[in-house]
Write a structure and sequence with these properties.
With 192 residues, this protein is of the alpha/beta class. Helix content is 33%, strand content 22%. It has six helices and seven strands, in the order E-E-E-H-E-H-H-E-H-E-H-E-H. The strands form two sheets. Strands 4-3-5-6-7 form a five-stranded parallel sheet, with helices on both faces. The protein has a two-stranded antiparallel sheet with strand order 1-2. Strand 6, helix 5 and strand 7 form a beta-alpha-beta unit. The longest helix has 18 residues. The two termini are 16 Å apart. Pfam families: FMN_red. GO terms for molecular function: FMN binding; oxidoreductase activity. This is NADPH-dependent oxidoreductase.
Length: 192
C-alpha cells in the first residue's frame, strides 16, 4: 500500500518519482525526465529516479518478488525507495518496439509495492514510443498499478535526437497528466 505523502509545514505534498528508464551511455532519458519534472505543479515534490544509479542486478533475490522476502541489499533499498513515493512518472524510450530491459527488471524485482500505485507514462522515440508504452501497459496492469497514459514525444517534432526539447513539445498534455496523477494519488490515500 502507498505510504502517506511527505508533510511540509503542515501541508501534504505528494512525492512523485520521475523515472529515467534507460542506462545507455548515449541516452537522452535524463533530459526527457528533467523536462517532465519541470512541468510538475507547485504542490508536488518531484525527484528524478535514474535506473542507471539505482543499478539493480537482474532478479537476484532467492525468493520470488510476490513473497516480499527480499534478501539482497539492492532490492531492499529499491523497495524502500519505491515505498517513499506516492506516484511515479515513467519516461520510456522505445528500443526495437519494446521498452528498456532495465525498466522491466526494476518492475519485476518488486511486487507488492506496485499494487494501487498511480503511474503515468511518457514515451519518446521515432514513433512516440507507441509500441513500447503499449507493451509496458500490459505489465503495469498486471502489477495492479493505476496506469495513466501520457503523450509520446517524437523525434523531429517534440525533441531532437540529442534530447533537446523542441517548441512543439506537448507541455499542456504533460501538465494535464500531472493533474490526473495527483487526482489518482488523492483517491488512493485513506481519508483523514
Amino acid at each position: 500500500m502507498i505510504e502517506p505523502s511527505s508533510i511540509i509545514s503542515g501541508m501534504s505534498f505528494p512525492k512523485i518519482g520521475v523515472v529515467v528508464s534507460t542506462t545507455r551511455p548515449s541516452r537522452i532519458g535524463p533530459k526527457v525526465a528533467e523536462w517532465v519534472s519541470q512541468l510538475a505543479p507547485y504542490d508536488a515534490q518531484v525527484e528524478i529516479v535514474d535506473l542507471a544509479e539505482v543499478a539493480l542486478p537482474f532478479l537476484e533475490d532467492h525468493a520470488v518478488p510476490a513473497a516480499g522476502d527480499y534478501d539482497r541489499p539492492s532490492t531492499i533499498a529499491w523497495s524502500q525507495r519505491v515505498r517513499g513515493y506516492d506516484a511515479l512518472v515513467l519516461t520510456v524510450a522505445e528500443y526495437n518496439g519494446g521498452y528498456p530491459a532495465v525498466l522491466k527488471n526494476a518492475l519485476d524485482t518488486l511486487k507488492q509495492e506496485w499494487a494501487g500505485m498511480p503511474v503515468a507514462v511518457v514515451g519518446y522515440g521515432w514513433g512516440g514510443a507507441a509500441a513500447a508504452t503499449a507493451a509496458l501497459g500490459t505489465v503495469l496492469d498486471r502489477l495492479r498499478m493505476v496506469r495513466l497514459d501520457g503523450p509520446g514525444l517524437r523525434f523531429g517534432e517534440d525533441l531532437s535526437t540529442e534530447g533537446e526539447i523542441l517548441a512543439d513539445a506537448p507541455e499542456d498534455a504533460v501538465r494535464g497528466l500531472y493533474d490526473q496523477l495527483l487526482a489518482a494519488v488523492r483517491e488512493s490515500q485513506p481519508a483523514a
